[in-house]
Design goal:
Blueprint lengths: L1 H17 L8 E4 L14 H11 L4 E3 L14 E9 L5 E8 L5 E4 L3 E3 L4 H17 L16 H10 L1 H12 L12 E5 L3 E5 L5 E7 L5 E6 L2 E7 L5 E7 L2 E7 L1 E2 L1
Parallel strand pairs: 1-2, 1-3, 7-14
Antiparallel strand pairs: 3-4, 4-5, 4-6, 7-8, 8-9, 9-10, 10-11, 11-12, 12-13
């Protein structure tokens, strides 16, 4: 029993040693749409998210904004996500900060509202969730952020998201290594439903949703719905119908 306690303590200390703080990141990227919203900035959620981040002391940019000089590395910034919890007669929202690998760095307290009007309810719940973020007293530390997963961090990611890890393993096992110098290279960032593909800006270019096949994703790009398919040549292709014509576009992805 004593040996087990010592081992667990050592693992915990190792994990803490590799853990990143929100203070280690230069800015936060705000999506225009969350999973529970149907249109860009519905209920002003993107606007409210950015406003709250600025009040909390963060630099914040929308995914469609051109980032200023000094933000060339997508791993220098955090990516915000707002999670809606199902509840009867109560709106519950929590805010997550994720790194460039999709690993959660911080999750806020749950903000609640009993307002019946959706826009009022989402605003109040989001403001309440941000109270715990204000309490962090964010200040950029200037500390260098790790740009690759450490063994401990990788194990933590497996433990917290087994399904996503299995899916990623299946995809990686059949995908050749892309050319990292390719200007069109997109990086796959895990989400609850699949992945979002981000360019070097960083900007969300495409959203992927898992299917029963590891080599096929339901995909959305620039409001165009289609599929991302791994073909026999080992390359990914985004296929969609435009004006009743099948269009196939090669996509270079690093999972």
């Amino acid at each position: 029993m004593m040996k087990i306690k010592i081992l667990l303590t050592a693992l915990l200390c190792s994990f803490i040693g590799f853990a990143q703080s929100v203070n280690d990141y230069k800015a936060v990227i705000v999506p225009l749409r969350y999973d529970f919203t149907k249109t860009d900035n519905q209920y002003r959620m993107a606007t409210l998210s950015k406003s709250n981040l600025l009040k909390a002391g963060f630099e914040a940019f929308y995914t469609n904004e051109q980032l200023p000089e000094g933000y060339t590395d997508r791993c220098q910034v955090l990516y915000i996500d707002v999670i809606k919890d199902s509840a009867f007669l109560t709106t519950k929202l929590s805010v997550q900060f994720k790194d460039c690998f999709g690993q959660v760095v911080y999750t806020s307290e749950v903000g609640k509202s009993k307002e019946k009007d959706y826009e009022l309810a989402y605003r109040e719940a989001l403001d309440n969730a941000f109270k715990s973020i204000y309490a962090l007293h964010y200040k950029y530390s200037g500390k260098e952020v790790a740009t690759s997963r450490t063994p401990v961090a990788a194990k933590a990611a497996v433990a917290t998201s087994a399904a996503t890890t299995v899916a990623a393993t299946q995809v990686v096992s059949v995908t050749p290594s892309p050319d990292l110098k390719d200007p069109n290279l997109l990086y796959a960032q895990p989400t609850e439903s699949g992945y979002q593909l981000i360019d070097k800006t960083p900007k969300v270019v495409m959203k992927l949703f898992k299917t029963s096949q590891s080599n096929v994703f339901i995909a959305s790009k620039d409001n165009v719905q289609g599929s991302l398919i791994l073909k026999e040549d080992g390359q990914w292709y985004f296929e969609s119908y435009q004006n009743d014509k099948l269009v196939s576009e090669k996509i270079v992805v690093k999972f």
